[in-house]
Structure formats: C-alpha cells, structure tokens
Automatic annotation (TrEMBL):
Any one GO BP annotation for this protein: response to osmotic stress
Protein name: ABA induced plasma membrane protein
InterPro entries assigned to the protein according to its UniProt record, in alphabetical order: AWPM-19
Coiled-coil residue windows: none
Superkingdom of source: Eukaryota
Keywords, alphabetical: Membrane, Transmembrane, Transmembrane helix
GO-annotated cellular components: plasma membrane
Residues passing through the membrane, by range: 12-31, 52-71, 83-103, 123-143
Gene assigned in the entry: 25484906
Length: 179
C-alpha cells in the first residue's frame, strides 16, 4: 500500500500544485476586480457570496501550495517525522478548500451573472476538494506499512547504527571520571 501511495502521490502533488497556482491567480484577479467595483466586466460578474468565496479561495490556494511543498518533502524522505508536517498542512489545506467548495456551491445556487473566470475558480475549487482529499489519504499511506510506520527510523539518519547507540562512544567503556 505504501509503495502504491508513494508512486501515485508525486504526480498528484504536482497536479494539485499547478491547480492551486491557477486558482490563486484567477481568484486574485477576480478579487481585485470586485474590490475596485468593476463587477460589470463581462468575464467577472458575481453575487452576494462572491466576496466570501474569493477570500476563502485565495486562502485555500495559499495553504494548498504550502501543503504541496511539505508533501514533496515527505515524498522525498518518507519517514514519520516528515509525515507530521505534511499531514498537518494537508489536513488544514483540505479543510479550507472544503469550506471554499461550500461557498462555491452557495454561489452557484444563488445564480446570477458569473463570468468565465469565476466559473473556472468555482470548478477548480470543487475539483481540488476531492483531489486534495485523495492526496491527504495517499500522504498517510505509509502508516499502513510496517517498514514506513510511525516507529520507522532509517539507520543512516540520526542516532542508531552503533552497538551502544551512543554516537560519541562507539567502542567499549570509556575510562576516566564523569563531571
């Protein structure tokens, strides 16, 4: 299970990273138009939920981008200590993306004129909610393999590998006094 998760996680991380950058760019453009009061622009539009949706979309995109960098770090090392940071940022990014998806659904339900850029941000947020959840599950796939579980430590990393486990004293007992 862990090798399957690790093999699929790399391309999914890259796909989500690109999608989050697209959401960040278009949501920022739409928010700038909305703040400037240019909702009459043919490719924008909007309704009462637009301001909230765009704010949470930008927040979800920024958290998602950070989550992808932490996920790439975990993919590189694939240890339990890298899983902690990757898992925490992935859960937070998924939660905010799910909140933005709820606001996207509300904006779609309200209706009115919405331009192609807003519709694209809505679609990307809805897609990212599910791909981020899949990414979250694949990030935690190493927990189900005994080699990469929570107690796994590579012998080439940190302490260990010596007979006594003490890197300062690899040989026998050390003479002298202790201070």
């Amino acid at each position: 299970m862990a090798s399957v998760g690790r093999n699929v996680l790399g391309p999914l991380l890259f796909l989500n990273l690109v999608m989050y950058f697209i959401v960040l760019g278009f949501a920022s453009w739409c928010l700038n138009r909305f703040i400037n009061g240019q909702t009459y622009h043919p490719s924008f539009g909007g309704n009462g939920a637009t301001m909230f949706f765009l704010t949470f979309s930008i927040l979800a995109a920024v958290l998602g981008i950070v989550s992808k960098f932490m996920g790439a770090n975990h993919l590189r090392f694939w240890r339990s200590d890298s899983l902690a940071s990757a898992g925490a940022t992935s859960v937070i990014a998924w939660a905010v993306t799910a909140l933005a998806m709820g606001l996207a659904c509300k904006q779609i339900h309200i209706g009115g004129h919405r331009g192609w850029r807003l519709k694209m941000v809505e679609a990307f947020i809805i897609i990212l909610t599910f791909t981020q959840l899949l990414c979250l599950l694949l990030t935690h796939a190493g927990l189900y393999n005994s080699r990469y579980g929570p107690g796994y430590r590579d012998t080439d990393y940190g302490v260990g590998g010596g007979a006594t486990g003490d890197p300062m004293h690899k040989g026998g007992p050390v003479g002298g006094t202790r201070v």
